[in-house]
C-alpha cells in the first residue's frame, strides 16, 4: 500500500482535554499552527456520536487538505469519508480494516514494543505509530516507555514510515527525528494548550528544524 501522507505533526484528539471547547475549533487551530494530519480518538464515544464528530471534522478539514484518520473504527472512517484508520494491537486486524476500507485508505498500526515488529503485515499498513517513547501521556494503561533507543530500533526494522508517540512535545522533536521518525503524534501538548495554534506551530518548527538537520538512525 504505502500511501504517502505527511506525518510531521500528527495531532491526536482527546475528548477530556477538549471537553470545554469546540472540537472543530481546536482541530482547525492546530492545523492553522502546522498540524499535518489529524486523528479523531474518543474511545468513550458511542458509534453515532463518533460518526457525527468524524463527519464534522472531515467537512471542516476539507478546505485545508489535511486528512482525518479515525482511531480504532474502520466502519466509522468509511461512513464519514475519512482518509483512513489507526489500529492498536488489540483492535481489528489490518486485513479486516483493509477489506472494509479498500485499497485507497490509509491504515496506521501501533507498535508498543520492538518485539511487535515481527508481526507487522507490511503489505497492509502505510505507517507505524511507535511508542510510548517519552511517557505514557494520556494513556495510563499504556506500555512502559521505550525511550529514543527503542524508537530507533523499531525504525531500523520498519519497512514503513514511523511516527513517534507518547509524551511528544517540541523538546522531543530532535531526538525522535534523529532516531529516524518522520514526525510526532501529539496529544496533550496541543489538546491541553489554551492556544492549540501556537502549540502546534512550536512543534512544527521543531520538527522541521530537526528534519532539515538530517537523521542518524
Structure commentary:
The chain has helices at residues 23-33, 47-61, 74-80, 94-101, 147-157, 170-178, 188-191, 196-213; strands at residues 9-12, 37-40, 68-71, 84-87, 106-111, 127-130, 162-165, 183-186. The chain is of the alpha/beta class and 217 residues long. It has an 8-stranded parallel β-barrel, surrounded by 7 helices. Strand 6 (127-130), helix 5 and strand 7 (162-165) form a beta-alpha-beta unit. Helix 1 (23-33) runs parallel beside helix 2, helix 2 (47-61) packs across helix 3 (74-80) and helix 6 runs parallel beside helix 8.
Concise structural overview:
The chain is of the alpha/beta class.
Write the layout of secondary structure elements.
Layout: E1 9-12, H1 23-33, E2 37-40, H2 47-61, E3 68-71, H3 74-80, E4 84-87, H4 94-101, E5 106-111, E6 127-130, H5 147-157, E7 162-165, H6 170-178, E8 183-186, H7 188-191, H8 196-213
Parallel strand pairs: 1-2, 1-8, 2-3, 3-4, 4-5, 5-6, 6-7, 7-8
Helix pairs in contact: 1-2, 1-8, 2-3, 3-4, 6-8
Helix amount: 25-40%
Order of secondary-structure elements = EHEHEHEHEEHEHEHH
Low-confidence segments: none
Shape: globular
Structural class per helix/strand content? alpha/beta
Strand arrangement in the largest pleated sheet: 1-2-3-4-5-6-7-8
Question: Keywords for this structure?
Answer:
217 residues, alpha/beta, 16% strand
